[in-house]
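Q: What would this complex look like in 3D?
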Amino acid sequence: MGALQKLLRFLKPYWLWATLAPLLMVGEVTLDLMLPRLMRRIIDQGIAHSDLPVVYHTAFWMVGIFSLALLCGVACTFFAVRAAYSMGGDLRGALFRKVQSLSFANLDKLETGSLITRLTSDVNQVQEMVMMLLRGMVRMPLLLIGSLVMAILTSPKLGVLFIIILPALVASLVFIVRRSFPLYRQVQRGLDGVNTILQENLAGIRTVRAFARAKYEVGRFARSNNALIQHTTAAVRMSARTTPLMTLILNAGIVLALWIGGQQVYLGGMKVGELVAFISYLMQALHSLMMFSNLIIQVSRAQASARRVGELLESKPALKPPAEGARVLQPTGRVVFENVSFSYSATGKEPVLKNINFVAEPGETVALLGATGSGKSSLVQLIPRFYDAANGRVTIDGIDVREIPEEELRRQVGVALQESILFSATIRDNIAMGEPNASVERIIEAAQQAQADGFIKHFPEGYDTVVGQRGVNLSGGQKQRIAIARALLPKPSVLILDDSTSAVDVQTEAGIQDALGRQPFAQTRIIVAQRVSTVLNADKILVLDNGRIVGCGPHNELLDTCSVYREIYESQTERGVVVYHGE
Amino acid sequence: MANSFPRQPTTAHMPHLIGRIGGHQEPGERPKKSRETMLRIWTYMRRQRTALLITALMVAVTVGLDLVGPLLLGRAIDAHIIPKDLPGLLHILLLMAAVYLCSAILNLLQNYVMAGAAQRTIRDIRADLFIKLQRLPLGFFDRRIHGELMARLTSDVESINQVLSSCVAQIVSGCLSTVGVAIAMFIIDPRLAAFSVLTVSFLTLAINRWRSAKAHARFRVQQAALGRLYGNIEETMGGQKVIKAYGQEKAATERFDTVNNAFRSGSIRAQFFSGITGPLMNTTNNIALTIVASIGGIMAIRGLTTVGTIATFINYTRQFGRPLNEIANLYNTLQSALAGAERVFDIIDEMPEVDASSNRPLSRIKGDVVFDGVTFAYRRDLPVLKNVNLHAWPGQTIALIGPTGAGKTTIVNLLTRFYEIDGGRVLVDGRDIRDITKDNLRAQLGIVLQDTYLFSGTVRENIRYGRLDATEAEIAEAARLANADTFIHRLPQGYDTVLTERAGNLSHGQRQMLSIARAILADPAILILDEATSSVDTRTEKHIQEAMRRLMEGRTSFVIAHRLSTIREADQILVINNGEIQERGTHAELLDQRGFYWRLSSRQQRSPSQQSADISANGSASLLAS
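A: Here is my prediction, written as structure tokens for the whole assembly.
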């Protein structure tokens, strides 16, 4: 119950509804429990004494009671739905805000898929569970206890039957749940197996086709499909024992009640109506026990969701906001790294960046080159403070980035990330993301600089073309160019291109660089690249190897002084590696 | 703010998410052709005829026994307890116990048999679906989002599963027992039966009709709001880093709040109507009890009925009302399962790829490839290839170069018959590839794609994918030739190392070397290579290059080329632009032509950097090395 209890604080604003609902449920159950007693009155006093007024009178009472019960039930639903869904909405809102406050480091840990699940199906589970708590979890135990009490009140002599029936029921329930639990785990595993093969055959369909392996895959699928249905059948068969077994126990109770009751009536210790009412309560008690066991299974399933939701709510943003907002006024874009070290996880592991020192002067283009995993992307991500340096500091115009308000910092630093993520909106809206009120002229200007205007104009709807999985399928290079235009639009004083032209051909890339050079204001540009061709024109090239700067200078200087650079350069030209990049 | 950014995707993108909320309560989706779909499901169930027949018989007997139970209860009271006949009571109670025991056993058995039958049916549907996937043209996968397809394959099949495993038996027994109970009640006491049966059935029908009429529109509103909400969440979470990078957290939160609040108010209105099912059901039951008790009481006083009959009727009334309500409740589950089944059958009914009619097998080929006036378009309005002609002689290396989207990959896609050409023909060893079965054709082709796909399984299994009957030695040899054996030996379990999903435990370069080993093992006559290696470091790059060169030896190779060495050594360079072969020839010939290729290679000279001038001066023709 722990995880759920913590989330229940979200019910606070709706405490009135959340208290009214269970109270009304108590009312409904109490009223329901009165009906069999009234039935007994009809039989024992009305029929036995041939007293018609008693029958009329009691029937009138019954009508009144079930009407009132209906009223209570409907009102309970009304309040429970209100409380649960309002709370669910608040919970979802709280999660969303939490995600917005998280840093990149947090987001790396929580994968996108798991974030989505938490905000959607997990919140739903919690919401449903709250509904159950407010209604079913009140109703079923109450009904169970109520009918037991009423049954014993109705006939204490027959009440002893419960001493036999209840343990039998509980024991059989526990037995089945225990046995079927591991079976369902196997079903889950089987399902995973089938899903993996499906997923692989969707994602790798070209490979399957290329090797003409359809038959092989069908065979592979058939095996896991068979395994899955075997597990499922076993699990279903096990849990399908519940109902017949419980019904049997219930019916055994009725037979016993009739036998004992029959003897009592014979001895004159009991009236027939009492027996009928008792059986009625017995059935109700056992019926609610069955429903109750179902509820418990559902609640325990929702516990896992509550735990995941709670986990996200409790995660703390890894970045601390600046103490006092030192503002960058009229920035020139001088970026300085002073003794910077950085590591993704605080514990143990070797740092990704070690003792980085360099200065990017206003208006300079600084290129970063190095093998995969040498730390290029990590380095540039420290400038817009996606992550915080472990040691040393990063400054813009002399101010530590940790002292610049986040909003201000992000406005000054434009980033085109490695993976160009676009949103399902028009191309225009995508480019204008950082500055939603930008004029059409400025949007087109940014697109022209990013060499995107040409292909955008080619689309029938031009800038109003909706980007989306179903709309125009943009190629990787086209997406990258739109992402670059997006970064260019606000005219940031520091521009970071993190390997963001990898899918753009060399000619287009050169066009982008030319356009950037022609911008009428000073912009410090930091470019991460794989290709030597991308960095040739940079004012300064930083060569990274294993988290350290091993060379720094313009191209011709590095050729002489830096062996790593020479190796990369030669491998890409003389020895004939990357020469031409298409898609 | 003029821009409504980001626009929300439609509900259709995420049926897998939408299906989840509120369990089976909402009638959000409606099947369009229920009758056909049910018949289709029946064609699968028919295979389990024997099991179904046995289940049906057992259900009928169980229902009968369940009717006898309350009857005996009434008789026990009327004939034995009230007249104080203990021996008779014992007798009838033993009979009752036997009836209940039989009923329980039959119930158990019918669940047992039905579970097997339902699962086998599901297995058959799932298998058919998978087989169909293997036969669908690639265009089918291109047009769809994998997540959505996965949802169809998993949750839609699962919803059919649920209906088959629980609902079918429940509906059958529910209908039978309702009818049975009604008949039994009319036989025992027609007048009392008329009162209770008519009231309960009228109330149940009326309530459900009223409720679903009220609820339908509200659920539609809720579903639409849900689609927008989930679309917003999916997109925002996916682009969270971009939102942060552009400082758009506030705007994103505002957009979220709008859809979240819309969903909240929509669902409160809709869920209320599904929530009141419980109290309404309960009340129907209570009304019936009241009628039986009061009217029965009056009749008993007038001598028209007995106390035992009333007890029987109280029992029967419960049995009569419950299935009706359960079926009404199941209606929504059924509807969404039918909608799911419809989507599943839609895939099964998709047009499969056309394959060669003649099965004349292609024996070992030489590798002579001809494109003769080939035209092609992925979408009718956007031609990709226009009248492409080429001839690759056996053993030649053909380098395909050109800007992004020029049509290089398309040429490869047509040769492999991943897509069918619209005009012209493609010949392999003089035979039109449309006359060769796809499997047969592809067995002669080796393809190393840019996006290397490895399957979950061991390293060995992944290499063996190239040729299923390869021996250990052959696999090791292929790995060696692909420069992969060094890193494989360094893996914790060597060749038995299990690759995780999407081979996350291997680097990009290592994955590529494995796929080369796979192609070497397949030993194809024609090879298709995509050289792009955007995220591989220099040393790995060299290893890959070496491996590719070994692979190309003695085979006709089509290379989507990125490397100077490949391009220079190619027998033919095809410069493709705008879907046409603009230039063709060897490296030297093309430089002489002073066309596109020459411009690409000499652009460097116009750039301000003097280093590039050095490169072209030293004769390595800084081709494209801008």
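A: To summarize the key features: Chain B has a mean pLDDT of 78. DSSP finds 22 helices and twelve strands in chain B.
Q: Very helpful, thank you.
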